[in-house]
Please model this.
Amino acid sequence: MMAPGGSKSYGTMSSSQLITMFRVRGLLANEPDKTKDLLMATIDMHLSDKDRETIETQITVVPSCNDNESLVALVKFRGGIPDFLSELTANPLRDWQVEMKDTDDISFNRHFHGLHSYIARKQKVRLLLSKSRQS
Model:
């Protein structure tokens, strides 16, 4: 699309389309489904009324790459950043810690690089084995 004057015009995303991702560490690996529910309840407890109206939360719990005893969650917020995590936008190298029921403190951060597993380790092993047999 050309804007007046011949320059390209790129559409702007509304705040409801913006997605911001955070990593949550310190989750126990014993019950992934329960852990996800507890994390959602913890997030909901800290959301402001305004945040509840405008922000959609999606949580994906995956095995930790560093530790078999814990899980990591990738949390996507569509529609903005919750007020309680806004400090991590201003200072992206910081963590925000909070106590979650039935576990130790968990921490939210945005300073992660690289890839995180989206499938369980057993599934990865089967996938790798099937690929090596095809070769």
User: Anything to note?
Assistant: The longest strand covers residues 19-28. The mean pLDDT is 76. Helices lie at 32-46, 49-54, 87-90, 121-134.
